[in-house]
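QA checklist item 7 of 12: single-chain prediction sanity check.
[x] sequence parsed
[x] length recorded as 335
[x] structure emitted
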Amino acid sequence: MGLGDFLKKQLVDVIDWVDEPGVLAIRYPMQDREIQNGGQLTVREGQVAMFHNEGRLADAFGPGQHTLVTQNLPLLTAIMNWDKGFKSPFKADVYFFSQREQTGLKWGTPQPITVRDREFGPLRIRAFGSYSFRIEDVATFAVKMMGSLDRLTVTDLDQQLRAVINTAIATALGGGEIAFVDLAGNQQAMSEKLKGAVEAGFKEWGLSCRTFFVESVSLPENVQEYLDKGSQMRVLGNLDQYAKFQAADSIQTAAANPGGLAGIGASAAAGMAIGQQMAAGLGGVGSGGATAVPAAPQAEVDPYEQIEKLHKLMVAGAITQEEFDAKKTALLAKI
């Protein structure tokens, strides 16, 4: 070790750490692990500083500024068997832990979960949402998660935390206590129930689940398509009503096309008009050359208008399909 390194080490008498986004804990970098007697330790709000000696937890400090002397390092002093106040640098590892709430974290089921739905039977569903957590029991977290690492981040724990969440979701939804169609209306209750299950798993590592939200529950696309078709059938009532609806929709589509029902009706109406003009040109001569007495004019009824009106009655349920077909045949026969 050069003279510069030696002098630098002697001047390390202020120990502090500024939180970094996504960082849960760090081991404070110190050369040869030596700390000056009387050095200053600054712990910010939401932080805990812990001293370790030979792998064992010695002392912990909460927020504030602390002078490192025998009086406030009793455990470390006892471990090192110092019967007198130390005056020279002492060796220890210093770890900083952030107890700030880690927010905006996402979770989701990597594979669909098979549940026994009360209404549809076995279903495979997916769920997505968000959660937040924080370090609650620093000592437990330091032993089980941090260990001797130099740095630990939220990303490092992501897979482990997701495993706990997915297990809780599979257990909660697998029982089929709530029908799938009712899950959307029960997301708040489901979120609270899952939060309790997740909290139990997090506690084993010294963590606490602060918030947990279920934001979406969905079915595979092909299953959702069949569910949508079933919903359409229930809205229409039954298969017979659905068939009538399809037939009515087809007639309306044909009527809207130039070559469909409207086109046929226009051609027939034109033929009727020509026929009427030819009859008028013949002068209405009756038998025996006598001029026929003109009959009282009768209101012309357009068969196609009648068919359209009858069709509306059928769609409304006032007449049946058979009645509509019979009337339509009769009206078309008059053309």
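[x] summary fact logged: Residues 8 and 31 are 9 Å apart (CA to CA).
[ ] second reviewer sign-off
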